Model the fold of this input.
Amino acid sequence: MQGIVPSLSVSTPSWRLVGSHFLVGLLGMVGFATLFAWHAHRLEGHFFQPIFLALVHFAVLLWLLPIAFGALLQMVPVIFSVDLPSRWMPWTAFVLYLLGSSGLIGHMWDYATGWGLPAAAGLLAASIWLYAITLFLAIGRSPKVDLTGAHVIFALLFLMLSSALGVALAWNLYRPFLLVDHLMALRAHVHLAGMGFFGLLIFGVAYKLCSMFLLAYGAKTWAGWLSLLATSTGLILLGVDWIFGVTAELQLFAASALALGVLAFFQQILAIFRTRLKKDLEVPWWHTLASFGWLALASAFGLWLLRGDAEVKPADWEPLAYALAGLLGFVGSIVVGQLYKILPFLIWLHRFSPRLGEKPLPTAAQLIPQDPQVLQWSTMQIGLLWLLAGLALQIPAAVLVGCGLFAVSAWMFAALLLPLYFAKP
Amino acid sequence: MTSPEIDQSHPPEHSGAAVEEKAWHALAALPDPETGVGMVAMGLVYGVEFSPDSRRITVRMTLTTPACPMSGALQDGVRRAVSALPEVEEVRVELVFDPPWTPARVSEEGRRQLGW
Done:
């Protein structure tokens, strides 16, 4: 009986919990994209403007982060073969999160810098820390941490740091107290969240999901570990440099480490793709590959922008374009692509699998029609290209077209995925 | 009885062979929910053994990874598919990871369905 596992104790998290996070994320994407298109004419001038800050926080807090948390609550128990420590902790975090994030976005939109701004930020940070503690308690029950697990741990630590810094920034707008430059601290906040949390989470989860969905096994993982080390080191040093203003040499070293981290990530992904058994790549993978392209572009853009700290001041559009390439291109594309995989997979698991063996069932991928996915992908990516080109060439009409196409793609995405919530075998 | 794709050299050795053959066919029709390729073609079923005396059938199966979130669903699917056979009274599913599943276990037909 060697090797027999009578009952594998991999817990299946509550669909209601995970599905609620994804639903908020889906509706959040539609809400963000619509507002984004409506206010496309505001995408000009310096990036430190209320509407832009509110829109970016809307995208992060009501679209991308709920989906990331939903995926984490689903994946952590499976990856680590553990149960979540409690039912009420993630639900409490979810409720606090919705209150805190909507309060923060509302205050930013109106640039209301009264006590409500730091209060909402504090509520939001508390909910994020509660999510992180819930996941850490679960991970702590696992005897082994693999490459993906290590990425999840580092990503959560960076998110906790970023949210704490976010509270400090909100308080600083209410009652100035920071001894360091507000905009430099804001840069650190953005990068800790963007690259520290989303970047590392995407890297780590991509290793797992690409292997799982593409049936890729046997790839060496040294590049993934190198990427984690280099990216984390680069981010910490860059944050220290921006907040405390150390030296230009330190910034250069940190940026080089980050670039190495990205290159090593690509090497690891390449190694996984080379060993894949599933050759045909469906539309969700097109999103994923587009996301990696946006990551390369945003990374190169980020290095280019660093010149501004030396002698040349970047043009106003450059930080905007950099932020949007990273946020909507890199993070947005992969979140959309992987949700195309994860949501049908979960619906199949919870609704269809009880009939497996009784009657013919569609595969998870067949739960969503394929052709509209191609149209949605094209609309989203063309929209993003128009948006970036419009910003770079200072053509407001092109920016408007880009934002409009992106909004249409968000509505299409929601129209394709929302019916899954009602799907039955 | 091992899968014909894993070992075709062993002929049926006992009277339960016909039931085992039926069970293999039932399992072959069971798709992997992600790829759509049958579980047998994916090389996930290691063996089927039927005991005519107890009318108990034992299916030895694996997963592409021990952390597969579909673990419970696939085991239940196997139970349902095999328990539909009239000769079977009891189904036992043994989940094993030794030997571990590797891509080499996928049949030619499975590879074709995966795009190779």
Notes: Chain B touches chain A at residues 26, 29-31, 33-36, 64-74, 76-82, 84, 94-99, 102-103, 106, 111, 114-116 (CB under 8 Å). The first strand of chain B starts at residue 45 and ends at 51. Confidence is low (pLDDT under 50) at residues 4-14 of chain B. The CA atoms of residues 29 and 40 of chain B lie 8 Å apart.
